[in-house]
UniProtKB/TrEMBL annotation:
Residues given in the record as substrate binding sites: 34, 58, 79, 139
Primary enzyme class: transferase
Pathway given in the UniProt record: Metabolic intermediate biosynthesis; chorismate biosynthesis; chorismate from D-erythrose 4-phosphate and phosphoenolpyruvate: step 5/7
GO molecular function, a single term: shikimate kinase activity
Protein name: Shikimate kinase 1
One GO term (biological process): chorismate biosynthetic process
Catalytically driven reaction(s): shikimate + ATP = 3-phosphoshikimate + ADP + H(+)
Keyword Transferase among record annotations: yes
Entries under PANTHER family matching the protein: SHIKIMATE KINASE, SHIKIMATE KINASE 2
Co-factor remark: Binds 1 Mg(2+) ion per subunit.
Length: 174
């Protein structure tokens, strides 16, 4: 299989961390849309949002997703990639989409330990755990609708990689 693998899910579910580990396990290349977008703009996401607003960031995100997609690549996306139906259709039609699903408590704990505000400017103005709860409630159904596979992302990165590989093997065998 050389179809691109798209990792989707909430901030802190581990798309970047698990994506890097997954590439080592399956020999694919790795691309992260947040990192590619910031490198091209030569600005952080917080700076882009402050200068241009969220809708301009979202337009850049769609362009980035399309430009980085290629075979044999694991693509870690931004947490809000599913807000655009264009992105959802694009990922479903051009690869395998995996939702890294983790409970609010796990997400909030990780984000509180490593907030990385330059990449994750606030979405609601609320404290992290409140924001994670509110945003996941709005987006969980979108992640599920877009994904071909839902994987438990609350374990270690190595465990999550194993779960992804199992989901892909089961899908290939059936
Ligand atoms: N499976 C895991 N076990 C323990 N810690 C993890 C795991 N996955 C990620 N982390 C930690 O949680 C933090 C957030 O992870 P990461 O940046 O990979 O999330 P993300 O899904 O890419 O978030 P974003 O949507 O903001 O890009 C990092 O500090 C990372 O080390
Ligand atoms: O959840 C979100 O809407 C975001 C998540 C991050 O990965 C970045 O893409 C950006 O901070 C927006
Ligand atoms: Mg990330």
């Amino acid at each position: 299989m050389t179809q691109p693998i798209f990792l989707i899910g909430a901030r802190g579910c581990g798309k970047t961390t698990v994506g890097e580990a997954l590439t080592r396990a399956c020999g694919f290349a790795f691309i992260d849309t947040d990192q590619a977008l910031q490198a091209k703009a030569q600005r952080s996401i917080a700076e882009i949002v402050e200068d241009e607003g969220w809708s301009a960031f979202r337009a850049r995100e769609t362009a980035t997703l399309q430009s980085v997609t290629q075979p044999a690549t694991v693509i870690a996306t931004g947490g809000g990639i599913i807000l655009s139906p264009i992105n959802c259709d694009f990922m479903r039609n051009n690869g395998v989409v995996i939702y890294l699903n983790a409970p609010v408590s796990v997400l909030a704990e990780r984000l509180e330990a490593f907030p990385e505000e330059a990449q994750r400017p606030t979405l609601t103005g609320k404290p992290i755990s409140e924001e994670v709860h509110e945003v996941l409630a709005q987006r969980d159904a979108l992640y599920r609708q877009t994904a071909h596979h839902v994987v438990d992302a609350s374990g270690s990165p190595e465990q999550v990689v194993r779960e992804i590989l199992t989901a892909l093997q089961v899908a290939r065998a059936s």
